[in-house]
Amino acid sequence: MNVLVEGPHxxxxxxxxxxxxxxxxxxxxxxxxxxxxPLAYRLHRCLGPLQRLVGNTPADLPAWSxxxxxxxxxxxxxxxxxxxxxxxDAATLRQLRIMHPRLRVVFWFGDVLFDRAxxxxxxxxxxxxxxxxxxxxxxERLQRDLGPKVTYFPFGVSSAFHRLxxxxxxxxxxxxxxxxxxxxxxxxxxxxxxxxxxxxDLDLAIWGRSWRKSRQLHSRGRLSMPDSxxxxxxxxxxxxxxxxxxxxxxxxKFYEIxxxxxxxxxxxxxxxxxxxxxxxxxxxRQPGELPDLLRYYLTHDEERRRLAERCAAHVWExxxxxxxxxxxxxx
Length: 331
Known about the structure:
By secondary structure, this protein is an alpha/beta fold. The chain is built from 14 helices and 11 strands. It folds into 2 domains: 2-153, Response regulator (Rossmann fold); 169-318, 3-Layer(aba) Sandwich (Rossmann fold). Strand 4, helix 5 and strand 5 (130-133) form a beta-alpha-beta unit. The model has no long low-confidence stretch (mean pLDDT 93).
């Protein structure tokens, strides 16, 4: 099939991972980044009051993105559009269906359901064929509220991207830490990690953005996805603290950590049992449990290694993106 992927240009390489999985399944893909500002857009914005002189041009980035998407769709055959965190709107979808009457449209919303998320999903629901949601609790809610087009579609591992390359001596020294956290600062995460850092016997290293807002914690910098995999591979423990709005499901990091043999500790959720992972992942139910849990696993190397190996084997056998997309209706 000819598949057009509309998605973000982002350090986590989500859009590229999707294209690689589809290509491995034999599909032809094209990729459109909906958050990249083209030169023409930037020039247009610089014109300020003179914008009216250049004629009828879109006023914002989503409108520019949708116009570019239509141009790409007109350039060749198209069977499936996959919109990832899409900026696409109903009017654009209807134009696409005029161009390609048999077009199948899949809208994938992978974030937790922020307040601004639901209006975006409902705005396109009638004009798409399937809505993919990556957290089971949110999926079940939307199935009740919107209807049967909503499908549970968790994240996974990528054979093309979640592989570890050679590690230099400098990288081994830089990323070999006892306890690592890689991720964006949220107030809830800050509070949990500050409590851990207060224990003098626990060596915590943080990478990620927005940590300048923290009063006590400091980030060692932002990481590309390949570099974050190096941290997960070399750290004795990778903490995976989900967003506080997470509703029974797992973020991308949940799969990235075991993909390179890393050991993670994350929140307990019922979905662990549904996935057959409850005996392969170390979990906590209350943040106050973390200091003692970290001390335990830092002193039980063999148990830590055994859990990491079992989790890695499971995700590579059952949770690849190729498997996810092969089971998707219409692909």
